[in-house]
């Protein structure tokens, strides 16, 4: 059995990563979406254990110390991290896993899991990004500005990713993701067991 594919999805806040990942899960139910831990307060409608594990800074720090995160980062004054156990379990069981995380965390994943696939989600334009961020209505104007500034820094890291998916339309963006996943699974280096079987029959 091959190990599951680890798919890391980044992109500025408001680019639509969350919407794409949810829609992708509906189309491909065999993918596990990792639930992150954060010290940020829940937004209206967010559910603990589903949207995030909402935890205190103290709990977050003790998880860092016990090696409980694959990666973690401070983003716009809140901490975010990927809990290790579930992700390792799912990959070992051959299930694909998505991490929807920001750029600093993605780079930590890249050094620990060089076989992972890195996708950057692009909003159609910066104006559209600003509209989406302010249209959410869940953040104060200064937070929107800070997130936009961070977005510009995130764009400057785009070349560290393997793929760019333009989110001009959610359905099209999800299809682009599905194509990436299918192509990646057919890479020779991910099909060691198949190659070994073929070679055995040739010898
Ligand atoms: P938000 O506060 O809008 O939910 O998320 C802010 C940013 O943190 C987003 O770019 C999101 O992808 C990222 N993020 C969410 N979970 C994690 C995580 O576990 N690790 C890291 N490094 N970033 C995360």
Describe the overall structure.
This protein is α/β, with parallel strands linked by helices. It has 8 helices and 9 strands. The strands form 2 sheets. The protein has a 5-stranded parallel β-sheet, sandwiched between helices. The protein is globular, with a radius of gyration of 18 Å. The structure holds guanosine-5'-monophosphate.
Provide the descriptors you would attach to this structure in a database record:
alpha/beta; 203 residues; binds guanosine-5'-monophosphate; five-stranded parallel β-sheet; four-stranded mixed β-sheet
**What small molecules are bound in this structure?**
guanosine-5'-monophosphate
Shape: globular
Cα Rg: 18 Å
Number of helical regions:
8
Helix content: 40-55%
SS elements, strand count: 9
Tell me the major beta sheet: 5 strands, parallel
Class by SSE composition: alpha/beta
Average pLDDT, to the nearest integer? 93
Contiguous uncertain segments of 5+ residues? none
| Strand ordering within the main sheet | 2-7-1-8-9
| Beta-strand percentage range | 15-25%
Task: Kindly summarize this structure in a few lines.
This protein has about 200 residues and is α/β, with parallel strands linked by helices. Helix content is about 45%, strand content about 20%.
